[in-house]
Amino acid sequence: MPWRKFLGIFLTDPRVIQKIADSWPVRKAARNAVYLFLRGKDQFKDAIDKKQLPTNTELRTSLLRIKDTVSKEVKQGFKELSKGKKDPKTRR
To answer: Does residue 49 sit in the same domain as residue 65?
Structure first.
């Protein structure tokens, strides 16, 4: 519990927060996040301008395929889980 209080006091100090914000890893992470955001934004705008967005039928088939894959994986996981419970050697 003393660590929680120490961190609470430590991380509310404006000087500490400023030093963390000015550190190289945090600046690099922020720069990469902004780069990825702007790149995605530009690609989305280009797709809208070129009208290369997927149609409703393409979206529907993609979503159905994802749904089927997820449901198969979940069913397979439940089968493996139920087999594991029946076999006393695999119990921990």
So the answer is: no
Which residue is associated with the tokens 């695999």?
90
Low-confidence ranges of the chain (pLDDT < 70): 1, 52-54, 84-92
User: Structural domain of residue 46, as residue ranges?
Assistant: 25-53
**Residue reference for tokens 């705008």:** 45
Q: What is the pLDDT of residues 61-84, one digit of tens each?
A: 888 899 999 989 988 888 887 776
* 3 state SS of 91: coil
Half-sphere exposure of 85 (CA within 13 A, CB side): 5
Per the CB < 8 A criterion, the answer to whether 10 and 16 are in contact is yes
